[in-house]
């Protein structure tokens, strides 16, 4: 379901945030995984509270708008859903990491794959799943 109760987000700002997700996950897989909780925090802020409650999103929006690089506006509903998935995956990876389990690499690798699809090709798998879900299970009104 499209969300019209929250302001739309700029496409290139969201892609830059996804690139940061990609870089943090790559750094984690290369040997410094202690940044994963930061991704969980960012996913929680943008996914549950909204993009405009996240300080980094506001900063990136201001900078990129000033440079005329923010891009077109997109509905934020699907992007919020994608950030909820980021929150879940980064939280699971963090819990596995701090419990001493090497399986934290699985959600981190999944985040690398899906974030690459978003920032490089503008294909948001979570956004596609979000639209697919509401196509087959529309919300009941009334």
Automatic annotation (TrEMBL):
Keywords, in A-Z order: Membrane, Transmembrane, Transmembrane helix
Pfam families for this protein: DUF4395
Top-level division of the source organism's lineage: Bacteria
Domain DUF4395: 11-134
Membrane-spanning ranges: 20-44, 81-99, 111-133
InterPro entries: DUF4395
Protein name as annotated: DUF4395 domain-containing protein
Organism: Polynucleobacter cosmopolitanus
Organism ancestry: Bacteria, Pseudomonadati, Pseudomonadota, Betaproteobacteria, Burkholderiales
């Amino acid at each position: 379901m499209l969300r019209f109760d929250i302001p739309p987000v700029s496409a290139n700002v969201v892609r830059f945030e996804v690139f940061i997700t990609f870089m943090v996950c790559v750094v984690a897989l290369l040997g410094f995984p202690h940044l994963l909780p930061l991704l969980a925090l960012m996913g929680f802020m943008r996914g549950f509270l909204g993009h405009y409650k996240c300080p980094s999103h506001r900063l990136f929006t201001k900078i990129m708008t000033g440079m005329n690089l923010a891009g077109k506006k997109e509905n934020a509903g699907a992007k919020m859903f994608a950030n909820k998935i980021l929150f879940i995956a980064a939280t699971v990876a963090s819990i596995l990491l701090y419990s001493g389990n090497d399986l934290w690499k699985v959600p981190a690798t999944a985040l690398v794959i899906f974030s690459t699809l978003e920032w490089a090709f503008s294909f948001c798998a979570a956004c596609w799943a979000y639209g697919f879900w509401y196509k087959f299970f529309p919300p009941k009104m009334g």
